[in-house]
Amino acid sequence: GNPSGGGPLLNNYALTLLVLFFLQTRSPPVLPTVARLRDLAGDEDRAVVGGWDCSFPRDAAALEPSTNTANPCSLLADFFHVFGDFDFPGQVISLREGRALPLPPPAAPEAGEGLKLGPLNLQDPFELSHNVAANVNEKTASRFGRCCRDAAKYCRSLQYRQKSSKGRAWGLTRLFQPGAVEPGAVSAGAFLISIPLDAAGGSQPLCREPGGRGPWFWEVCAAIAFVLRDVLKCSCAAGKPPRAPSEDSRLPGDSAP
């Protein structure tokens, strides 16, 4: 299936298609267009699903090897550069054609009649009437472009290319820390969540507190709540506190509830 997502964020399918489209548009291309794959499909590869031509060669040996020799780090920086300045609302990204189509898209049935347009238009490569990013709103599309511009700028910095002598995050590590390369963002260290264990790495302080409900316990709860609420974007509601296990219910060797 082709999920459209449960909110305004880019889903994994849409993001994967953006990566594939980017690789199609390199010079020389890293990946062929879907139209080219259809042309290379043999009779045994023919497949029509729901009226859409989904044919492509099952044998990868039928594909011409790419002559692109760009290194992955260069491609990653180029990805951010391309989509940092991309006119998302004014074009339709087509993996079938391997290029951005102007608006309005062609009216031919196989070229996407009925395609729902919005702030980010990403046409499914087989079901051409489906915009896989139709759920994305203007705010999300704008922020995605801004994040790509910030990341492209970071990829040109010395911190991306050279290991920090001060033990700070650098290269890909810093790039993939949430918000770390956005202007005005807090320090990347703010995204490190410490669990307050004792110096030996055990959980004895918790056991020494009557009922296991001292400050240590609530610090751990706060850390977990941060992950659920601020990182995973879950809705957190107050519930009954967990019951402390009785002495006779503990297993031998248990060091903490």
Q: Helix and strand layout, with pairings?
A:
Layout: H1 12-24, H2 34-40, E1 48-49, E2 52-53, H3 72-84, E3 91-94, E4 99-102, E5 122-123, H4 138-155, H5 158-161, H6 171-175, H7 204-208, H8 215-231
Parallel strand pairs: 3-5
Antiparallel strand pairs: 1-2, 3-4
Helix pairs in contact: 3-4
List the keywords.
5 strands; signal; two-stranded antiparallel ribbon; disordered N terminus; globular; PAP_assoc; metal ion binding; Poly(a)-polymerase, middle domain; 8 helices; mainly alpha; disordered C terminus; three-stranded mixed sheet; STPAP polymerase; 257 residues
Strand coverage percent: 5-15%
Can you give the mean pLDDT? Answer: 79
- The CATH architecture of one domain comes to Orthogonal Bundle
The CATH class of one domain is Mainly Alpha
Distance between the termini: 43 Å
Biggest sheet: strand arrangement? 4-3-5
- Stretches where pLDDT is under 50 for at least 5 consecutive residues are 1-5, 253-257
The secondary-structure class comes to mainly alpha
Organism: Mesembrinibis cayennensis
GO biological process, one term: RNA 3'-end processing
Keywords: Magnesium, Metal-binding, Signal, Transferase
GO molecular function: metal ion binding; poly(A) RNA polymerase activity
